[in-house]
Specification:
The complex is a heterotrimer of chains A (256), B (371) and C (178). By secondary structure, chain B is an alpha/beta fold. Helix content of chain B is 43%, strand content 19%. In chain B, the strands form 3 sheets. In chain B, strands 3-2-4-5-7-6-13 form a 7-stranded mixed beta sheet, sandwiched between helices. In chain B, strands 10-12-11-14-15 form a 5-stranded mixed beta sheet, sandwiched between helices. With 178 residues, chain C is an alpha/beta fold. In chain C, strands 2-3-1-4-5-6 form a 6-stranded mixed beta sheet, with helices on both faces. The two termini of chain C are 26 Å apart. The chains are: A alpha/beta (256), B alpha/beta (371), C alpha/beta (178). Chains in contact: A-B, B-C.
């Protein structure tokens, strides 16, 4: 029998040709890929406008093959609000890290969710500030050593991690708020499904949607990529439980 | 359009609406809140976008995002709120987007008060946000001018892809005067070649103020500076009163300018050859006009509702050729015409060259202030 | 040539509206006008005042230290503004709310119990119109007819039924000091 060619993998059209500059083993690349696959599958690329944050993913606009704006630190949800309100027929998403979203941008994200802004937020939680070299973030675990908590995060003086999915799920404006993880293939598949549902919530005009993705930062954590995945599983999962925190009843039964 | 008796804040809001404002984002702060309230009523009834943001930070970044679509968008605020917006304004300047912002200035620094002030001159005219950028700054003194300059602000913003600020003190916002509004125009969304509309059948675009390679950041800066030179060439605006034979030139903008007009008329009645130059655009500044006046006048008096922020621009233009004196009220205090008339009389009597006229001014102010 | 009028009183006494009427009437008469309120914390319950200027050329300062005319709707306004009226000017005092009359002799002053007069017309809120009528009887800057026409032209539809009472109040105010 003649061998037939079968296409088993194709680079998503929603990704550009530009190779990304993320560190080896960093899960940003995985997250980008999942978003691109979902936008391809939903045939949304040409209708979508992304908003990049300040942080490691500040160059996200280079890697996605679609219109993009670059926001000020933490302000992506406000910028996305402006883009979406003027173009209600377009799909608008922000891609934000934990310093961007849960610290300096706390006001913007809470109120975008509170208003039920029809945007989708992809929230990368890797328990530290990556781009500036691994400082303590609002998501840094108690006792976790970073370059600005060299003795480990002392909850007496630096407080406790902030759980964004749980927090935003309390708001009426939120239609879909879940936490997933990128530490193994099974969870990566679940993350992709969640991204699909989040964009579906926006397409159907149900309200604000956010997928929080637990991610690794091997470089700043001082671990190999494999060790980093294990560290995430052992330390972050107990602190940031995976789950569906808000799912609009209208989304019941939505399957990609 | 018939003339109507209009309040400054509401007239500016309605003028923006009539020339095709598509979206307004703002946050309440006195003394500009009537603009926000007017927008909250009018924009939804016209099917346009109104969002009361969570803060001025939110508002300016919503404007930033909305401006990326090529639509006519604006915000308004007052001094402390504008301070909070400075981050976003610098980003908007760096991204070269057309945005209009109205600042109804109040007393400061800090929380200050809600009384009329011109204390934002430096913040608005000479930057405030980080980096090298130059906004166009327009300063109305009457309700009609507030209407006309609001209309012009959008055209200028779009022509130059530049920030345009309309700055007025609380008096201009609160005053009612007869004015004529522009006719209602249909909204026409411009879709410039840079707008983010979704990459449908075309190459992707991105809008950003980031140029991580300094080489390209410098290229961008050069473009901004060249545009600024062009703006300086084309967009100087000022009003002249009794300047033909003036020996003593008073310079003031906004409310301080019109109060000075009353004083100049009174001085003329006393036989003092005083005249008034009222800058209508504060940026670009009428340096050339002042340079010409410095060749024939024997003294200048700058009048402001701040501690002499514009004074320094006048001094730059006069370049030490004739004395430049100063009178200002601060912190939300508004001078009465008779105070300025006294100053005109004093300068006419004894024009003196002073390195810094503010030293003597602060001493004179002691007599006016409560102890 | 310009005429400056300050109307001052407590919030709720219709001070700002009386000033607006003057501005409307001036505008309708083809004059140049400005109306400016004191704004600020005082607008929330304390004293309120506005300055109206009616002129024949571009108005410079919208604020004046020494106005040609003042309506003082209460005692604090009388205390504050009596010394400021320009010599030869006019001061109208609401005697219902002030336990003294004007003392200056270099100005024309009139006092009338505007609260009681309004109540006898059946509406306490007509006090401002009574005072406006009294002022205009002594300050011939605008006619009573022009104020009535301005009211008819610019009063919102829902307040139209109040027009006859307002006219009556204006006339009674004028008559009381003529």
């Amino acid at each position: 029998m003649a061998a037939t060619e079968q296409l088993v993998y194709e680079r998503p059209h929603s990704l550009s040709e530009t190779p990304n500059s993320y560190c080896p083993g960093c899960t940003h690349g995985v997250a980008h890929h999942l978003i691109a696959e979902v936008l391809d599958e939903m045939n949304l690329r040409e209708r979508t406008i992304g908003v990049a944050p300040v942080g490691c993913s500040v160059f996200a606009y280079n890697y996605f093959n679609m219109d993009f704006a670059e926001a000020a630190h933490g302000r992506a949800p406000a910028m996305a609000t402006g883009l979406k309100r003027l173009q209600p027929g377009r799909i608008v998403f922000t891609y934000q890290g934990d310093g961007d979203l849960a610290s300096i941008g706390m006001g913007e994200i809470v109120h975008a969710a509170g208003r039920g802004e029809l945007i989708t937020v992809i929230f990368i939680n890797n328990a530290n500030y990556g781009m500036t070299g691994g400082q303590m973030a609002p998501t840094t675990l108690p006792g976790q050593k970073t370059t600005s908590s060299p003795y480990g995060r002392d909850v007496e003086t630096a407080g406790y991690p902030i759980r964004m999915a749980e927090l935003l799920a309390t708001l009426e404006g939120a239609a879909y708020v879940v936490r997933r993880s990128l530490h193994d293939p099974k969870n990566i598949r679940l993350a992709k499904k969640a991204l699909h549902t989040a964009f579906e919530a926006q397409v159907r005009g149900l309200g604000f949607s956010m997928v929080e993705l637990l991610s690794t930062c091997p470089t700043n954590w001082g671990l190999t990529p494999l060790e980093a995945l294990k560290w995430l599983e052992q330390n972050m999962l107990p602190a940031f439980p995976l789950g569906d925190y808000k799912v609009s009843p209208s989304l019941a039964g939505t399957r990609p | 359009m018939p003339r109507e008796l209009l309040k400054g804040n509401e007239a500016m809001a309605e003028a923006a609406i009539r020339v095709g404002l598509e979206a307004y984002f703002g946050y309440p702060i006195t003394p500009q809140t009537e603009i926000l309230e007017w927008m909250s009523r009018r924009m939804p009834e016209l099917g346009r976008v109104f969002v009361q943001a969570e803060s001025e930070l939110g508002a300016v970044n919503m404007v930033y995002g909305a401006a990326c679509t090529g639509a006519r968008v604006m915000s308004s605020s007052s001094s402390p709120g504008v301070s909070l917006m400075m981050e976003g304004l610098s980003y908007i300047a760096g991204t070269e987007l057309p945005v209009v912002l109205i600042d109804i200035m109040r007393g400061g620094p800090g929380l200050g008060n809600i009384a009329p002030s011109q204390g934002d001159y430096n913040q608005m005219v000479h930057g405030g946000g980080h980096g090298d950028y130059h906004p166009i700054v327009l300063a109305p003194a009457t309700v009609q001018e507030a209407v006309d300059l609001t209309v012009e602000a959008f055209d200028l913003a779009e022509k130059y892809r530049n920030l345009v600020f309309v700055v007025a003190d609380g008096n201009v916002g609160q005053i009612m005067e007869p004015a004529e509004l522009p006719a209602m125009r249909e909204v026409k969304r411009a879709t410039p070649e840079w707008a983010l509309t979704g990459a449908e059948g075309r190459e992707r675009r991105f809008l950003s103020s980031i140029y991580i390679d300094p080489v390209y950041e410098e290229v961008t800066n050069k473009r901004l500076q060249e545009r600024w030179l062009e703006i300086q060439q084309n967009e100087v605006r000022y009003r002249e009163y009794y300047l033909e034979d003036a020996d003593l030139v008073v310079i003031g903008f906004g409310t301080a300018g019109r109060i000075a007009l009353t004083a100049v008329r009174a001085a003329r009645a006393e036989g003092i050859r005083a005249g008034l130059l009222r800058p209508v655009a504060l940026s670009p500044y009428p340096y050339a006009a002042i340079d010409e006046l410095a060749k024939r006048a024997s003294a200048f008096l700058v009048v402001e509702m701040n501690a002499g922020q514009m004074l320094e621009d006048v001094q730059r233009a006069v370049a030490g050729r004739v004395p430049v004196d100063f009178y200002g009220r601060m912190g939300g205090m508004v001078p009465f015409p008779d105070e300025i008339l006294d100053e005109i009389r004093r300068v006419a009597r004894e024009p003196r060259a002073q390195a810094d006229p503010r030293v003597a001014w602060l001493k004179r102010l002691e007599k006016v202030l409560p102890h | 040539m310009q005429t400056e009028i300050i109307i001052a009183g407590f919030g709720g006494q219709g001070v700002l509206f009386a000033g607006e009427l003057l501005a409307y009437a001036g505008m309708d008469a083809g004059r140049v006008v400005t109306w400016i309120p004191s704004y600020g914390p005082e607008m929330r319950g304390g004293t309120a005042n506005c300055t109206v200027i009616i002129a024949d050329e571009e108005i410079g300062s919208p604020l004046v230290r020494n106005p040609q005319a003042v309506i003082a709707m209460n005692l604090p306004s009388l205390e504050k503004y009596e010394p400021l009226v320009r010599p030869g000017g006019v001061l109208a005092v609401n005697a219902s709310m002030a336990n003294r009359t004007a003392v200056r002799t270099d100005i024309t002053s009139v006092g009338l119990p505007a609260n009681e007069m309004a109540e006898s017309l059946g509406n306490r809120r007509l006090t401002n119109m009574i005072m406006l009528g009294a002022l205009l009887a002594r300050l011939p800057v605008l006619s009573l007819e022009s104020i009535e026409q301005a009211m008819a032209a610019h009063l919102p539809e829902r307040h139209r039924k109040l027009l006859p009472d307002n006219y009556k109040a204006l006339r009674q105010g004028a008559a009381a000091v003529s």
